[in-house]
Amino acid sequence: MAKIDNHYIPDNVSPPGETLEEILDERRMKQVEFAQRIGMSRKHLKQILDGNAPITPETALKFERALGVPARFWNNREQQYRDFLARRDEAEALGRKIDWLKNFKHLNRMMRLRWLPEVKDRVDKLRSLLNFFGVSSPESWEKRYGELQVRYRRSQVKQTDTYALAAWLRQGEIKGQVLECKPYNREAFQRTLYEIRKLTQKKPKDFQSVLVSMCAACGVAVAFVPELPNTASGATRWLSPDKALIQLSLRYKADDHLWFTFFHEAGHILLHPKKDIFIEGQPDDSAEEDEANRFAARMLIPDSAYHTFITTHSLFSVAAIRRFATEQGIAPGIVVGRLQHDGCISYTKLNGLKKKFEWRIQESDE
User: Fold this and answer.
1) Is the pLDDT of residue 81 over 90?
2) What SS3 class is residue 337?
């Protein structure tokens, strides 16, 4: 027996006609007599016995009257047999498409992260992957996600593993769908962002669940999803007209990147159409990305305060950065990241002020 998704699928199921034939033999009833009793031609009965014709609910009732065996027994046997035939045919069809798996280079990591069940057979891997994406075949996947990829930023598609990206996005979608959220409220979300800004000074164990709850109360699902190689640091899309999704990874493993990405994605929600999908982590010079960048920068450090800080300091010492961060109510690592981005200091300087994040996830054994 093969185990898939905690369900055991038998390797072989006999047609219910074999059971019928055994009962007739036990009762020493000729097939011609039984056919007469149920008003069926011998040819049709022979087809049922051979598994070439189904036992319909009406026929099951006739069997019940003639043999005293409940109709539900025959209906269940017939369903089990037809289900077995369908699964067998599906396995054969999937076996002819097994090369499609080669597009997904990180299946083992997806299994370790428990996005997929751990299976070894390649057909089982393909089946579990299709179940994960909620599609019936590789052709359905290409139609559904191929169209989706057209909406990705073209500059990203050239540098991103789009199959891994689709898997990462799908896991975020799954997490976002089960997260209970109130209907989206734009004004409430805007107000909440100023409260969320204060969380930048806290550790992940102190801010993660609070961040998720605060956003959910405004109709925004926040999903933290471990990255796959060559995917993204964040993404934004709408799961429904009343529910937005912000998806975050720890691609750069530092607080300045994480918080800038979060506020960047929040900017997309507030500023841009619901039909668009925004994926961060690759170069993109679109107007929407520039708007979201400016929104995040201003939310984290107001323009006037930042301008005053950089014009009154020729040297950016640890003490000066800590003092400014405290005045602004944000983490010092965010100030360092902004100074590095703007060329005020080297990317090698003052990184000790940044908080480093690591995933604490229960991966299954290889």
Assistant:
1) yes
2) helix
Fill in the amino acid letter for 348: T
Residue 233 has pLDDT above 80, yes or no: yes
For residue 365, pLDDT over 50 is answered with: no
d(CA 312, CA 299): 21
Cβ contact 192:175 at 8 Å = no
Q: Exposed (0-12), middle (13-18) or buried (19+): which is 69, by Cβ within 10 Å?
A: middle
Structural domains of the chain ordered from first start: 2-95 (1.10.260.40), 98-148 (no CATH), 165-353 (no CATH)
- Coil/strand/helix, residue 129: helix
DSSP-derived secondary structure letter, 98: G
The residue-averaged pLDDT of 262-266 equals 96
How many angstroms separate the CA atoms of 142 and 163, rounded?
Answer: 10
CA distance linking residue 354 with residue 284, whole number of Å: 25
Instruction: At 279, list the tokens.
Output: 């994926």
Residue 361 in tokens: 């996830």
Render pLDDT for 108-138 as a digit per residue (tens, 0 to 9): 999 999 999 999 999 999 999 999 999 999 9
Q: According to DSSP H, which parts of the chain are helical? A: 16-26, 31-38, 42-49, 57-67, 71-95, 107-112, 122-133, 138-150, 154-157, 162-178, 186-196, 204-216, 255-271, 287-300, 303-311, 318-328, 332-341
Supply the pLDDT for residue 285.
Answer: 65
Q: Nearest CA to 275 among 235, 238, 242?
A: 238
Q: Kindly report, residue by residue over 156-182, the tens digit of the pLDDT.
A: 444 668 899 999 999 999 999 999 999
Tokens 């605060």 map to which residue?
Answer: 214
The pair of three-digit structure tokens given for residue 18, joined into one six-digit string: 């074999």
